[in-house]
Design goal:
Helix content is 31%, strand content 31%. With 190 residues, it is an alpha+beta fold. The longest helix has 32 residues.
Length: 190
């Protein structure tokens, strides 16, 4: 008996609606990095300009759509609600050694300068199958700023994606955090 993709998706949605999951949601993958001697605003500037990340990191490239005549978007700073195309260039760790890069459509959901928090969600599949909670949070330290770079894979495929890609994701987050710190420190020197 052949089961259609639509029937499988309907079944998965019914499972979630009934409160049943095959595996528990995995813990978030998180990389934390201290950026000494810089305030949150100084780290926020290069982080927030997602469309310019390629200038200082080799881990991610973000295409920011320009809607209308937005100077902010032309400067690489997406507005909340923007649908971004994020290409990830994987570190040679785990499955990342086999995948040179992947691209996914992702929606910017929060870009709050007051709390120094920026979040987005993947939009490749229905959220019941795969969803993400992807955030950066900058926290003030006595000696600088702490960068928390985290993702949690949700939905029916969340535990599978976490198990397969978790190590590669963490390696990329560690590299990105180091690159962000260097970019922020370089901007301060200039």
């Amino acid at each position: 008996m052949q089961i259609s993709t639509a029937d499988r998706a309907a079944f998965a949605m019914a499972l979630v609606a009934a409160g049943l999951t095959l595996l528990p949601a995995p813990a978030p993958i998180e990389a934390v990095h201290a950026v000494p001697h810089l305030g949150q605003a100084e780290v926020w500037r290069p982080l927030r300009a997602m469309g310019l990340w390629h200038e200082w990191t080799d881990t991610f490239r973000v295409d920011v759509p320009v809607v209308g005549n937005s100077e902010q978007e032309r400067a690489g700073v997406p507005v909340e609600g923007s649908l971004l195309s994020i290409r990830t260039f994987w570190r040679p760790h785990g499955l990342g050694a086999l995948l040179p890069s992947t691209a996914s459509p992702e929606r910017l959901t929060v870009a709050d300068e007051a709390s120094f928090r920026m979040c987005w969600r993947v939009e490749m599949l229905p959220a019941v199958l795969l969803d993400t909670d992807r955030c950066f949070v900058l926290t003030k330290l006595a000696t600088g700023t702490e960068v928390v770079n985290r993702i949690q894979f949700l939905g029916l495929l969340g535990p599978v994606v976490h198990a397969i890609m978790g190590g590669a994701v963490h390696a990329n987050f560690e590299a990105f955090n180091s690159h962000l710190a260097a970019a922020a420190q370089g901007a301060k020197r200039n």
